[in-house]
Structure formats: C-alpha cells, structure tokens
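1st attempt posting a full record on here, be nice pls
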Amino acid sequence: MTTAAIPTAVNLVNAPLVYKGKVRELYDLGQHFLIVVTDRISAFDYVLDPAVPEKGNVLNQLSAYWFDQTKELIGSHVVHTDVDKLGDVIIDKEALRNRIMVTKKAERIDIECVVRGYITGGGWRQYTKTQAVNGIELPAGLRKNQRFPEPLFTPAAKNDVGHDEDIPFDRMQEIVGAELAATLRDKSLMLYEYARAYCEQRGIILADCKFEFGIVDGEVILIDEIFTPDCSRFWAKENYVLDTEIDSMDKEPVRTYLAHSDWDQNSMPAPLPQEVVEETTRRYVDIWTRLTQ
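the predicted structure (as tokens):
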C-alpha cells in the first residue's frame, strides 16, 4: 500500500527550520542537523503539485544505503537515520520513519562534483556546440550516449539562486585551491567507478552523477545525497541505445508530460495528472528495488 505523500514536514518537527530546498528540509538540532526528505518534486525549476508518494522514502533510504556501502572509501555526514532516537522532536514518527537523516554540521564546499561516464544531457549539448565539455576537448565524431573511454570530471560552481555554473577544472582550483580540487576530483572518480560496477551487476547503467562534499574537523566527507535518481542518471541496460533520448529511471514521466503539454514554461504548471504521479512513484520504487535487493 502506497503511503500518503508528504509535501512538507514543518508541522511534524519540533525544531527550527533553517533551510527549505526543493525536496529537503533542514532543521537545527543543536549539535547536529536533521534532514527530512519530502515527497516534493521539481522540474524545469518549478516545485510541482501534487507531491509524489514514496519519493522521499526512496531518496533517503537509498542515500543511507549508499553512504553505508561507500564508508570504507570516504566518510559521510550521517550520524543516524533512526526516528525513534529523536524523542519529542518528531511529532509523528510513523510519517517520517524512513525519510529522516541526522547529520554532522559540515562546512559545505561550494562545488558540485559531476562525473560523466557517457556523453549525454548537458554534456552532449556542450559537445555539439564546442566539441568540448567543461573545457575538456574531445574527439570529433562522438555519438550521443556513447561511453567515454575514461569518465570525465566536470565540476560546477554552486549557486543558491538559479542554476549551478559549469566550470573548467582550472577555475575550480582557483576557487578551492589546487590540493582540495585534486582531492575532490579523485574521490569523485573513485566513487563513480565503484557505483558504476555495482550498478552494472544489477542491469543498470550509471550514466552520470554528482556529489557534494563538506569538511568536518579538517576531513573531506560526503554530504547531501548520493547515487539517487535525483542526483544520478540511471539507465536500464535493456534500454541503452545511441543517438536518441534514453528513458531514464527517475522523474522522466513528469518531464515528458510537461514537455508535451500546453504549459507555457513561464508560470506554475497545473497539477500533475494522477497517472503521471503513479508512474513516477513506480519509477522511484523500482530503482530502489533493483539497486538494493
């Protein structure tokens, strides 16, 4: 039975709300933060109605799963994910049981660390215009969705308002310093290679992904989320083909519906049809099942 969607947790948490993102809400517990992953869904820079049941559960549990899987490679901000340890901070424990994460208070590094294993999406659009991705010159004649011989590290400077800005590695070095830039690049590529091999064993292609890092007590750690449908591009191996759009294992039903509707893209879209919401829920639950069972 699919549980009811939770578009916000502000009435379910007895703690100060310090940040509300498109999907996550951040509450201050004093020594730690509490992250609640809601069922909100965004597309084309709009947070849409209605929320998608199970989405937040999947995102939170999948991140927790991957943080645990990669803990020998790099530490993370996770303290625990047990709602029962939070006492009266949580008003309705069952509603939030699978969607909370208590985390360390890290100093966020304002770089989005993107790794591309295949030339698709924004990377393909850059390539068709400049024959380069983030300033990395590439051979002529690459085909859309082609696998790179070696994954590309293509960072972006984080902007709290508007889109993140793709930058060359040289610019990243100027922003955070050469040593930290090299550390983030190397850790990102290592994590991607680990997850790509893991996914391939389960019939899934990890086309690209992004990481966020922070610093706690001088140590670089993973923060935010990792290898979820919201920060990674997953393709079912059976759907892989060159030269066309591949239906990714995420909120693609929402993007497809909006792209083919009469929405003007300059105002809040009308509520999503129920069948689109249900198909999106099915996609998120399917990727969770295929990756963890």
